[in-house]
What does this fold into?
Amino acid sequence: MKTVLTTIGGLPALYGFIAQMAVIVLLSFILRWFWKNVLVRISHKTATNLDRILFSSTVGAVQYTFIAAGLSFTWKLFNEQLARYFDRIPLVSGDYLRDLVDNGVYFAIAFSLVYLTAKVLFGFIEWYEVDIATHTATTLDEKIVFSLRKILKGIFIGLVVMIIADRLEWEISKIWAAAGIGSLAVALAAKDTFANMLSGVIILFDRPFLVGDRVELLDGTYGDVVDIGLRSTKILSFDNTIHIIPNQDISNQRITNHSYPDQHLKVALKLGVAYGSDMHKVKQVLHDILTQHPKVRKEPAWGIWFTEFGDSSLNIFIRFWIEDYREKFDIVDEINMEINRCFAEEGIEIPFPQRDIHIIRPDGMPPAST
It folds into this structure.
């Protein structure tokens, strides 16, 4: 019986196909060994973790992609010869077998490329999470990375479905239309959530404040930032209550960051002394108090000014800087206590508000009876 296998180089086409694929698989293991034992080891000696993470995470994906590419090349090389062999197989259509192998080869190369791309992208995400996110003062980027992983997984699953549907020519336009309408409905229902998430991303990159900063919002909220989330920011007030504020509300109002650009804080005090006080002596006493306090900065220089003649007192304005804004109330308390003590020792009076009332009576009006 005449053989149905066409020979190439003296070997039947089917044997040639199997032999070439065996060589490709063998080479893929050599490539895997080189990738894992040479490139990965070299990457451990570089200054960055990015190449180490990428090489380590793509070992299997590179091997599978190499095998899939070899399978595609080998099938194209032996396609015509093997197709004639398929036509002689009983009970099964040769065209059906040819299409089945064509689809298998197509899916192998397509899915391996998707898998390799996914490994590379997730490698970048892992590098950012390990080398960048852990060194920031906020947990927002970790939450964004977590959400990004979920989103990318959904995207890759959708991409696989699209590849299969496109190759098999499935009628999925109605499904995509329904999914689009459903997605639009979800987007409209969750627009505030999406707006807060977008504002959270803007806060992450713009960084108007970080965790630990003391901020004051235009609406009067004042306290320390304890967490910056994907949807909201938490601020701990001085009465030990947590204000949970949507990120969109924060990004749309003016923010005063008392911790920026550093922790130094300018403190302003106002006080008044009685009329008749020796103002040179008053200023000298205040000068000595500020000079002797260990937490009042020498630079920028502080100042003491006699500013005005008030209704009941001679008013003085004091301005000085401290190292840490978180110590403001303690330092102000200490300085006020020292001012009160020194003024008492030096006989300097801090007056009560007072008014002199002069009653003018018209001529002939008797004095008021007591």
Notes: Confidence is low (pLDDT under 50) at residues 1-11.
